[in-house]
Amino acid sequence: MCIGDERGYSKRGTAKAQVIRTLDELAHETDHERGFFYHFIDARTGQRAWKSEASSIDTTWLLCGVMHCREYWADDSIKRLATRIIDRADWNWMLRGSDLLSHGWNPETGFLTHRWDSYAELLAMYLVAIGSDSSPIPASSWDVWKRPMRDVDGVIYIDAETPLFVHQYSHAWLDFRGRRDRYANYYRNSQRATEAHRQFCIDLAPKFPWFGPDMWGVTASDSQGGYRDWGSAAAQMDGTLVPCAAGGSIVFLPDECGIVLQTMMDRYGKSVWSRYGFVDAFQPAAKWWSPDVLGIDLGIMLLMAENTRSNSVWQIMMATPSIQRAMDAVGLVKV
Q: N or C: which end of the chain has fewer CB within 10 A?
């Protein structure tokens, strides 16, 4: 909504009015548990759907959007509603007596067994929790989760053999460029991960001839067989390409990723482009083009494209006191 308002995608005032309606619904009507929203909710009623969990990571992305709206619009209603939603999240409860955040909580069974204990899309979540005004967790939690190293043909980076999106999501909101803690420069780390993934895909060209230097990218997405959590093992791949792999990494390798998106348009045209942008995934040899629209995959491309062209999301988010406080607390300093 902020990007659309800034870019003139809608009439002046339309996005703001929609944001107020959405924030009011989230603040007063939508199901939550101690400020953590359920992974899936019914869009008509705001009630929990499919017996899903109150999710720490999915709440994080929502809170980042809410925080962005609060800082973008100088509006008392937005600031009041946004602050209510942000401050309601009880991060200490989500620690469940540990130094590591839980994946979530289920009304029927309690806390999920898994914790955020190894590198993943967790950077922003821990920083939001550490910088919280109402329920901050200890800064020492930042040091507890593991940072496993990978070496892919001489490209060394932190990675737990997970899909490419884990290197994207936190960077959509927070600007890690030129910063490092005692472990890593996380922006450069995600650059390396993208470089390694690009080469991984290029190496699959003998099996999938449509792959190559200008046509690559696979991450968690739709597929001919339903949702697939595409990892980094070649055996998993079936030749599907996922536009948000390159689109969501465009801030890391602008030229290489931009060429991929342009090549997809030039080669496949309307087959890969719909009313809402790129299709979620496609397998050109099978002439399969995903019919589904996944907001999170389109969203990562929008946010990363805007940061690439203007830095505006980064500038707004990095100016917030809670984010500044968290960055300082964990030692993410400018170098």
A: C
